[in-house]
From TrEMBL, chain A:
CDD domains: TM_PBP2. Keywords: Cell membrane, Membrane, Transmembrane, Transmembrane helix, Transport. Pfam families: BPD_transp_1. The chain crosses the membrane at residues 36-58, 105-127, 136-157, 169-190, 210-234, 272-294. Belongs to the binding-protein-dependent transport system permease family. Residues 101-293 form the ABC transmembrane type-1 domain. This is Carbohydrate ABC transporter permease. It is found in: Cell membrane.
TrEMBL record, chain B:
It comes from the Bacteria. SUPFAM superfamilies: Periplasmic binding protein-like II (SSF53850). This is Extracellular solute-binding protein. PROSITE patterns: PROKAR_LIPOPROTEIN.
Length: 309, 437, 273
């Protein structure tokens, strides 16, 4: 067993019964003096300034006109015109920004859902069925976790161009459906969370393998599913190299590619600076809100799925 | 692995669909111009949107959809090449600079326009610009505009220091020192290490001729004494700390133009619109002088000439050719493009009576086109040509210049290294090549 | 996953032969063996780019992991006010795609625009984020900003799963805060640290979007600044797909070697308690 595997399985025996160890009401903290408390808070606050400063700058910049973007302090408001700017962003070039946003949601949403189901199924098969070459497959998957996705983007482009899929939704979607990390996590989790006895019982009841998977196993593996889904969703959302290589039609672009396009066009069309910044603002803020409000699930998923497994 | 097998199956099925789709629609060779056509056009030229709108209004049957892209070498050529390689996703029409045309021809990416009408229309264009898109017996693009060079300078700052526009490069170096000594924050210009197209134009002006074709063999002569003279000139200014070395066409540079920390720019005719667009508060303070000279015979150069090409895989090559010729010869279209600042028209007789021939407010009322650029355009060494791997050569120069700016080697070293590397590039393409002219 | 790799290997041992100045005489692919690999490894720029990402990884990975661990431990100490707010604030940048983060920080690095540079020069400091000496670390900063919060959350999750009885026992034994951290917390969160380290290694070696976005702003970023940038440039600017494929394969090998190497190292270093 490798160490990473231990990362998931390390605590399994102990915590299987208590689903939320953090809620256990016991005095887990050792009380400290107020001076210590101020010190720790100050350290945390300094870190918070670092993490929030660019967000603050983006918010201020999004309110500015192109000329005051270059001509005024980046930290203070200067004739704020946020609404005008945002209207420009969403109406520019026939509302292409909305199209990009929808594309991003499509790539990430569909990609993450399918990848999650595939990963769970594959992980479950690897964990609960014995077949020839099982360990070989698992090692290939493990190697897949280690291979940087971007190193595969170029070969994928060459492959996709052979079969004529370049510059289609499929060219970005198909590679996004594969998640070696998801399979890996799926297997670890299935080993720990799906008891063999339950499977035996269902089979004795005459349930088919598909039914067992979709009704029983999926439910048991839900925490892992949440983790894989979120992981894959953000992964696809943030992906840049793959769509950059695959897509040439602007109407297929995800937001990342579109904004970079605006930003690089702006050397000859200065008005696009403001669009790039306004677009960044519009695309970042909802995701930030989502991320923060979904934090519970991230945590739950990570605790249940990754760490405890 | 079940998952992988599923994907393989999907890919296979999709492949079958793609092949049937290919065979059922014949490649776009239909040549009836009255037929309906929808064309996409990639361009980054300011003002082209207005010209396209005008075309679409006048030609309901041939509708052109413009996609404004980043400048070619900032990623758009890469996109075109990848689409051509993939056999789909390429636009019908695209902006292609002269130096990139041989590369597209080598990758078999352009439609020969001669049989489609360019053969007849070619008399409408200036000879040397037409020559940039003619290879062998084929015309692979409609010439659009060139970039005859001149020197943009802040007249207010120069005259406050008692400086005249430098007529020679020696005077230019003196001006560089005067300016920087008077105000350490100010520099005469930036030598953008990532923009070797600019350096190439300056070598062109000095009389260098880097590339040639001898039968089937390409010749490469980048490290000639002439080019090395230009490189070492800029080496001296850089080592003396008299020029900036920040990237051009970038935020920091715009900011320096705006606040007067950069006071001159040896640039092309289209540079005026870049200045007025990005440093609007400096309006009225700029003037244009002829490019500083090396010798007594006046010589100029071209920076950033460009064409409109029809890409392989177009749905209607005939309609595309028609649009490309219209875009670059129709007086109304030309005046819209001129207003955006697309460069010096490739169509003959475009100056007289056009929007080119008038004083410009941004230049304090100077009629720079008449005063400077007309003569500049006539003084370009028009025998200059390019190779199919010009982009690689630019990359080598950029890398060398960037290293020099970081303190590793000199611009001269960069030029020498580019010579060797360029020969290797052409060999790697499976082409015949030798050094010298 | 296997398919693209196999195809990449096929492309990487192929070359092209042409006749005529523009290949009018026809072109054909030929088997060239390891020529493309020799070219790639013989090109000082590509080798330098590999060296650069390795240097980047060697510095970036420890900084990232130490920062994430420190933040997690501080938050878990719960001796502070506003723990929930801080945790959200740190995690927030994870939702910002790398390219957008780079556009953002790009503005914050640009002289004349950046409040940071202005602030620095007001203090008499000449901050140059985009120069040759600093650009790699400016990129490291973007990566750290983006992922430190995520790594922190993974570690926090494992900290939360530590049995509270252990802390009780420790406090009865009179352990101080430092001892609790070094004797109980750190050994128990080792798996999470290993996991985040492996992911950070893989992430740093495939550096691409950040230098691509910052390239127009910085003279110091060449077209072969990182292996991925080099492969992209070879493929699409120079149309040398074969060389690009060879570079991709080399990059995958290096990344694999490093991650497995690290795992081997920590596994051999003894098992966590």
């Amino acid at each position: 067993m490798t160490t990473t595997e231990r990362a998931y399985t390390g605590k399994k025996g102990k915590n299987q019964s208590s689903k939320q160890p953090s809620t256990v009401q016991k005095p887990r903290k050792i009380q400290r003096s107020p001076g210590w408390r101020i010190l720790v808070t100050a350290a945390l606050a300094v870190a918070a300034v670092y993490f929030l400063f660019p967000v603050y700058w983006l918010t201020i910049a999004a309110t500015k006109s192109t000329s005051s973007l270059f001509g005024s302090s980046g930290l203070a408001l200067d004739n704020p015109q946020l609404l005008t700017n945002l209207v420009n962003v969403v109406t520019y070039n026939g509302g292409i920004f909305g199209r990009w946003a929808l594309n991003s949601v499509l790539y990430s949403g569909v990609g993450a859902v399918v990848a999650t189901i595939c990963s769970l199924a594959a992980g479950y098969c690897l964990a609960k069925f014995t077949f020839r070459g099982r360990e070989v497959w698992f090692n290939i998957i493990l190697a897949g976790v280690m291979i940087p996705g971007t190193a595969l983007a170029l070969p994928l482009f060459l492959l996709m161009s052979q079969v004529g899929l370049v510059n289609t939704y499929w060219s970005v979607l198909l590679p996004s459906l594969v998640s070696p990390f998801g399979v890996y996590l799926g297997r670890i989790y299935a080993q720990a969370a799906v008891p063999d006895s339950l499977l035996e019982a269902s089979r004795l009841d005459g349930a088919g393998e598909f039914r067992i998977f979709f009704t029983l196993v999926l439910r048991l593996m839900m925490p892992a599913a949440v983790t894989i889904f979120l992981f894959q969703f953000i992964g696809i959302w943030n992906n840049f190299f793959l769509p950059l290589v695959m897509l040439s039609d602007q109407s297929l672009y995800p937001i990342t590619l579109g904004l970079v396009q605006w930003q690089s066009v702006s050397d000859r069309h200065p008005e696009l600076y403001q669009l790039a910044i306004g677009g960044a603002f519009l695309s970042v803020i909802p995701i930030m809100i989502a991320i923060v409000s979904l934090q519970r699930f991230w945590k739950a998923g990570l605790t249940e799925g990754s760490v405890k497994g | 692995m079940k998952r992988i097998r599923t994907i393989a199956a999907v890919v296979a099925v999709a492949a079958v669909f793609a092949t049937t789709a290919c065979t059922s629609t014949p490649p776009g060779s239909s040549s009836d111009p009255s037929e309906k056509a929808n064309l996409t056009f990639w361009s980054w030229v300011p003002g082209v949107d207005k010209a396209v709108d005008l075309w679409n209004k006048e030609n309901p049957n041939i509708q052109v959809k413009l996609e404004q892209t980043p400048a070619g070498s900032s990623g758009t050529y890469a996109k075109m090449y990848s689409a051509l390689k993939a056999g789909k996703g390429a636009p019908d029409l695209a902006q292609i600079e002269y130096q990139e045309l041989p590369g597209f021809v080598l990758e078999n990416g352009l439609v020969d326009l001669k049989p489609l009408g360019m053969g007849v229309e070619s008399s409408k264009f200036v000879d040397w610009q037409l020559g940039q898109s003619t290879f062998g017996d084929s015309v692979y693009a409609v010439p659009q505009a060139s970039g005859p060079m001149g020197l943009y300078y802040r007249e207010d700052i120069f005259s406050a220091l008692g400086l005249k526009a430098p007529a020679t490069w020696d005077e230019y170096a003196v001006a560089a020192k005067t300016i920087h000594d008077a105000n350490p924050a100010q520099y005469i210009n930036t030598f953008a290490p990532g923009n070797s197209a600019w350096f190439t134009a300056l070598a062109w002006q000095a009389g260098a001729k880097w590339f040639g074709l001898d039968g089937d063999t390409w010749t490469v002569n980048i490290d000639s004494d002439t080019t090395l003279k230009v490189a070492s000139y800029w080496d001296k200014l850089r080592e003396a700390g008299l020029i900036k070395t920040e990237p051009d066409f970038a935020n920091g540079w715009y900011s320096d133009l705006q606040n007067g920390n950069i006071v001159a720019w040896p640039s092309a005719q289209w540079g005026g619109s870049i200045l007025s667009g990005n440093a609007p508060t400096t309006a009225g303070k700029w003037k244009v002088a002829p490019l500083p000279q090396w010798d007594s015979t006046y010589a100029s150069a071209n920076w950033g000439g460009s064409s409109t090409a029809v890409l392989k895989g177009t749905s209607n090559a005939q309609a595309a050719e028609k649009f490309a010729v219209w875009l670059n010869t129709d007086p109304q279209s030309i005046s819209l493009l001129l207003a955006g600042g697309y460069g010096w028209p490739a169509a003959k007789n475009a100056l007289a009576g056009s929007t080119l021939d008038k004083p410009e407010e941004f230049l304090g009322g100077q009629n720079a086109n008449k005063d400077v650029f007309k003569k500049s355009d006539e003084s370009i060494n028009t025998s200059w040509g390019w190779i199919p791997t010009t982009a690689n050569t630019y990359t080598h120069l950029n890398d060398g210049f960037q290293a020099a700016v970081e303190g590793h080697g000199t611009f001269v070293d960069a030029v020498k290294a580019a010579q060797t590397a360029t020969i290797a590039d052409l060999e790697a393409k499976g082409l015949k090549v030798r050094a010298g002219d | 996953m296997v398919l693209p790799l196999v195809y990449a290997i096929y492309e990487s041992v192929t070359g092209i032969q042409r006749s005529g100045a523009f290949g009018q005489g026809g072109s054909s692919p030929v088997f060239v063996g390891l020529d493309n690999y020799i070219t790639a490894l013989g090109a000082s720029a590509f080798v330098a780019s590999l060296g650069r990402v390795l240097l980047f990884a060697v510095v970036q990975v420890p900084v990232m992991i130490i920062l994430a661990t420190a933040l997690a431990l501080l938050l878990d100490a719960a001796s502070a006010w506003g723990v929930r707010f801080f945790r959200s604030a740190y995690f927030l940048p994870y939702g910002v795609p790398g390219v957008i983060a780079s556009i953002l920080w790009g503005f914050l690095y640009t002289p004349g625009l950046s409040p940071l540079v202005n602030f620095g020069s007001a203090l008499g400091l000449n901050l140059d984020f985009l120069g040759g000496g600093s650009i790699l670390w400016s990129i490291a900063n973007i990566v750290t900003w983006q992922y430190a919060g995520y790594n922190m959350l993974v570690i926090v999750a494992q900290l939360k799963s530590i049995d509270a009885d252990l802390f009780e026992a420790a406090s009865i034994d009179g352990a101080n805060a430092w001892q609790v951290i070094t004797r109980i917390k750190l050994p128990l969160i080792r798996p999470a640290i290993v996991l985040t380290t492996v992911f950070t290694i893989i992430g740093t070696i495939q550096l691409f979007a950040e230098p691509l976005v910052l390239k127009p702003l910085s003279s110091a970023i060449t077209s072969s600044f990182t292996p991925n940038l080099s492969a992209y440039n070879e493929a699409f600017a120079n149309n040398n797909y074969n060389l690009a494929a060879a570079e991709s394969v080399l990059l995958a090998l290096v990344a694999c070697a490093f991650s497995f190497g690290f795992l081997k190292l920590v596994t051999r270093g003894g098992s966590p308690s």
